[in-house]
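Suppose a classmate hands you a notebook page containing two proteins, each written out with its sequence and a corresponding row of structure tokens. How would you begin to make sense of it? This section walks through that situation. The first entry is reproduced here exactly as it would appear on such a page.
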Amino acid sequence: MREEYKVTAENRLILCDELPEKAGEFCGKYMKDKRDILRLRFTLEECLLNWLTEDAIGKTLIFSSEKKLLRKPYIELRFSGVPINPYLRDTKNELGAYGRSTLRTLGLSPTYGYEDKFNVLRFDLTVRKLTTLQQLAMVIGTSVLVGLLGLLLPDNVLSVVRDSVITPVYSTFFKMLNCVAGPMILLSVAWGVYGIGDAATLSRAGKKMLASFIGLDFLVAILAGIILFPLFGLHLSSGGTGGLSLFEIFTMLLNVIPANIVEPFSSGNTLQIIFLGFALGIALLFLGKRTEYVAKAIEQINYLVQFFMELLSKLVPYVVFLVIVSLLWSGTFEVLLTSWKILAMVALGALITATAYYVHTSGHLHIGIGALAKKCLPGFLVAFTTASSAAAFSTNMEVCKKKLGVSDSVSGFGVPLAMVLHKPISVINILCVSFFFAQVYGIECSLSWMFSAVFISAMLAIATPPVSGGGTCAYTLMMATLGIPIEALGIALAIDMLSDFLITGCQMFVLLPTVANVASRIGMIDENILKAKS
């Protein structure tokens, strides 16, 4: 649908009411969460009120809503005249290029541009026909049914189907993942490093947040690695019990530098890919204005790669279906049954991490643990029931401002940044998956392997954007680097569909005290609101 209006004194305010209503009706066809629809309507209304002032009389406004093949449904506004970005009015809350990109990545902010003398604001809608839990139940139910029925067929028929159909399809899916996973991490790291320049403009708030989020991710990785490694029944190999020598550390550092630019992607070497991303991001950061067009190109290519990853992520349920059927037919279904250990260990790690966060924050802010947890619980419940960090965004923002007393500027920057960079529970999850399959496949765990697992888990959690297919990308690179057979990927994805609820919920639960801690250290928290009963 495309409608064009000439703005007049009579219809100026009417359009501010009618167009958000039309947008809400269009969203209702594709979005199930009424809160998301309402939030989009408010955002659209805010934009129109900023555009359709008295100076807008005589100008053209175009409203479009459409759903095309292989593309997300979208809503677009075009307004003629000089460039007016409605999201740059409040310079105090300006997030910079990285901050705006962060919100768009989370699906929480529209894309603004200026084309052919028109201001263009575009909302890409997230479509969910089935919830993750419904999808998981359907996949497991149909795969077990087909697998059990298939056992009635002769063994030679099952072998032919497995070797001629399932294995080639799975291998092809993995090849496609390999093509996208490496570039996705490279671009995400480069853009993240480049964005440090924007964060630094927020003075001590931005610097302290970046240091806290990234530092805590690495601290959790180290402690979780030490605690969880023996719990999976793993032992350091005889060659690794003496500790890492200086020569081994030096060699590992040198091996991070690739022989050529293609090798990291062809071999799936995560550390080398991350190194290239850092190098590119630092170069853009230092060159500044001289490379602003390159930075813009990287941002746009990043969106392109994420689009391909989203397409691949839609195939994940079918791949999981094939993997479960193959496991049943090959008699190795017990591997999937024993994978409950991953869920148990992630839950244990999340419990210990959340307890540590709340004990520390309680002592630092001088507030009871129970009272603090009660204030932060709403964000956890939304994220846990939806497995969506984006769905919990507005709740987290409200809790930060109205229950924890964090200032608007810190909340507006800190919450979306933490949702992208601060992922301690994802760190624990990647480590648990690594340790579980190392035990299943008898991987030799030297101290250097352990060091790599801990470092990669933290880097992948930070580098992987919270988009559809991000977890698949992280597992793919992790397994390629740690020598885990790629057939384990299907099992990891099946477990991930279930553990995603726990991981997302707990991630949001520890996010809020971290932001409150930083705000307290820089004196940007209201003690009266914090200490008030919720």
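The notebook's second entry, a different protein, reads as follows.
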Amino acid sequence: MVRSVWVLFVVLTVLAVGCASADPVAGRPARLVGEGTLVTEVEPVAEVASAIEERTIVSSDVTPVEAVPMNAAADVNKDLGRGINFGNSLEAPREGDWGAGLEAEYFRLVAEAGFEHVRLPVSWAEYAATSAPFTIPTGIDPAISDQPYTNIWERVDWAIDQAEANDLMIIVNMHHYVEAQQDPLAHWDRILGMWEQIAPHYADAGDHVVFELFNEPYGVFYDDPDLWNELLVEILAIVRESNPTRPVLIGPAGFNRIDFLEHLVLPDDDHLIATVHLYEPLNFTHQGAEWLEDIPQIGVPWAADTFGWTEGLYDRSWDSRVITEDDKLRVDFGRQWAGFSVDYVEPSRPTEVRFVVEGEGSLRIGCRAGEVDELDQARIESTTAPQQFTIDLSGCSDHASGFAVMNERDDFGPIFFSSFEFCTEARGCQNIVTNADSALRRWVQRASEWSVAMGVPVHIGEFGAFSADGQVPIGDRAAWTSTVVDEATSHGLSFAYWEFHAGYAVYDVETNEWNAPLLDALLN
């Protein structure tokens, strides 16, 4: 995930490059009414209402749903329990390329700490031939050098044996196949061809081995989840020829995101576990992530009483830090043309956005519509005096799913927002922020609700907060992790933390010590 997630950020935090070359247009605080009618609206606010006090607090109670009996894989999911990803190792082009390798000692440490499984991301596509029958080499693979193995089979076999020797279950997946995400049809047969080799190779492996068909379908699958539903049926059919009852993990499109579960169509198979990934909010979990094209600014704190995004909204800001300060939403634009933006996954037909703003700025305001920013709805000049604005967004396209506020100035300070409401035809008007703890718990609850309604157990295959070489406080990362673990265990969901010993590390391989706050959050 750590290497592939940058694509999500690129797609969902578009820079509006065309706007950067435009001449800034001076404007006044305004409301746009109808087409082409600009109505000046300056409303000094004597006492700015607190966005945090007015926010809608999301209940931690799970919405009642009609339960369906769980399938046969439910007991296996309980056995998976708490786990850790051995990320950045075999998912790299070659082990060690991304600074992480595998040692037998790591399996022992994980087991002795109290974890029950490991997830092993494997980039099988880095080893398979590019033409039919897409052979994954056995014997000596000439493409492998300076490695403790001669072919990838040998290394994965070794990892499976290490897991068994330490009484750990192990999830073996197909990971980091970027080309297939970008052009699934061109790589369709290759994916099937690799599973035609992987599945029978491990047909006689122990019950501690679980398969995961494909990590984080995104790219074309993001826009067309039904295409992923078609592919997963074909992969599973191949697996079942040699592994009729082996538990198999399958996640939804959209990077395995929880809100894409509604698009996941699983075949009638009693041995399936749904897997989802949780990295919300991205501006906290990925701050300082150097593999992203636009690195989220460092300095976003985490605590239960800080802000979170109201259910269904995602932060799509670029080159900006969004935090709360003095009970207001503070936006630090990192540069000219940086933006603050949130949106829903689906088109929502925005109608208007309302807020109180403080701080000197020249702001362009409009809608987000897929990869396009429609930022010509209004341009306003904010001042140090609080002012109330209502911006008409009804002129945005039918594909619009959110709003964006972009900074046009090259000299800028922080801008403060409060009483911030976003109105759409699909959802009505909502405060855009809520209690952080409740918002994060609600994501886990949504996965649990889906599980209960479908009778399919759920595994949180990845979750974690990046350390940015220690710049993100370990206490904040542990608090975020603790919330996910607490809610997951309360609903009986298994999980695997991302990751053991790289950028999100719970174990420091240089000091040979666990990062105690994270370990405690995961186990206690």
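A careful reader of the second entry would note: Residues 74-270+457-523 form a domain with the TIM Barrel fold (CATH 3.20.20.80).
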